[in-house]
Amino acid sequence: MSDIAPKLGPIEGDSSFEIRSGANVCRSNRSGTGVENQEEVKMKKSVFLGALTVAGMAAGVAAAGTMDDVKARGKLNCGVTTGLVGFAAPDSNGEWKGFDVALCRAVAAAVLGDGNAVEFVPTTGKTRFTALASGEVDMLARNTTWTFSRDVDLKFEFVGVNYYDGQGFMVPKSLGVSSAKELDGATVCIQTGTTTELNLADFFRANNISYEPVPIETNAEAQQQYLAGACDVYTTDASGLAATRATFENPGDHVLLPEIISKEPLGPLVRHGDHEWGDVVRWTLNALVSAEEMGITSANIDEMSAGTNNPEINRILGSEGTLGEMLGLDAEWAKRAIKVGGNYGEVFAQNIGESTPIGLARGLNAQWTDGGLLYSPPFR
Ligand SMILES: N[C@@H](CCC(=O)N[C@@H](CS)C(=O)NCC(=O)O)C(=O)O
């Protein structure tokens, strides 16, 4: 971790840094009813101090020009999770695989011509923002929810949404619970520094029920604690619950409760102020989404890039127009990005889709043409 980490994270023993709720760098309280008024007052003070620190760092680092740094380094430093199978985790050969990993590789292929030119930097819910603000990573592709305070206060730029999600609850079937509203008095495993922590407090408060948080830092730890019975419930993004349950020995012994208590638009982010770099990451994601909409797949991309009778496909794949040049890249940037892992739909199907153990339906993540929310702006 970079040496500026302590500036961003909560400082032990300094009560003014106990909760950075608005910025989602928080420590759980164990009072059982979520965030209390007294702590909200402290939060305001710490958010102000934290914002100054982060703004200073982000501005300093962004001025350097991330694209030039990445090109000079010959490698993209991509911040991912510490491990969430299907989204980002090393396989048995130590090779990073997953839905978020595919986006890192696509950006590396667009900028550096090589989808393997990526240093995957594991980050937790707590360390991810420090890693990005300090310049330790060039981007985050890590189950991170786009919120007002992360954008405005922490000074990051979410360049799009690659997974529309919401927060859910998982319980052992043996608990006999069928609704989150029946969880009064439950112990809840929850990752610190997340929106999850804040939504949980809101949900229990709104329903006038109490809980005992069991704070944990990584998904691996959550899984361990939950399976050991240290908490009755595990709550996080519904996609994360599905991914975690898929790794259990007996997934059928655990149920996801029907309530989805929040909106969690998950997407890649970069530092505020470096628009050239933000554009590259944004349009790489858009290229994967548009490719699916237009029927460009890893199987037909070579053929299509020779030219088709659809001008937008030609502009994406570089046989017409100068979009690559406008980005500071060559004509084939998007072709390379799409070729690495396929279009958005291929990446989804291969890593987290219905035919994988994670088994996620496209749902909100279907193309707008299929009733979903995926909608890339036009390539023109
Ligand atoms: N989307 C939420 C939660 C993100 C989060 O940290 N999720 C956990 C649970 S699915 C995760 O990705 N853990 C992976 C890890 O521990 O490295 C946020 O942005 O705060």
TrEMBL record:
InterPro entries: Bact_solute-bind_prot3 (IPR051455), Solute-binding_3/MltF_N (IPR001638). Belongs to the bacterial solute-binding protein 3 family. It comes from the Bacteria. It comes from Ruegeria pomeroyi (strain ATCC 700808 / DSM 15171 / DSS-3) (Silicibacter pomeroyi). PANTHER family: AMINO ACID ABC TRANSPORTER PERMEASE, AMINO-ACID ABC TRANSPORTER-BINDING PROTEIN YHDW-RELATED. It holds the Pfam family SBP_bac_3. This is Glutamate/glutamine/aspartate/asparagine ABC transporter, periplasmic substrate-binding protein. Residues 75-304 form the Solute-binding protein family 3/N-terminal domain. GO terms for biological process: amino acid transport. Keywords: Signal, Transport. The keyword Ribosomal protein does not apply.
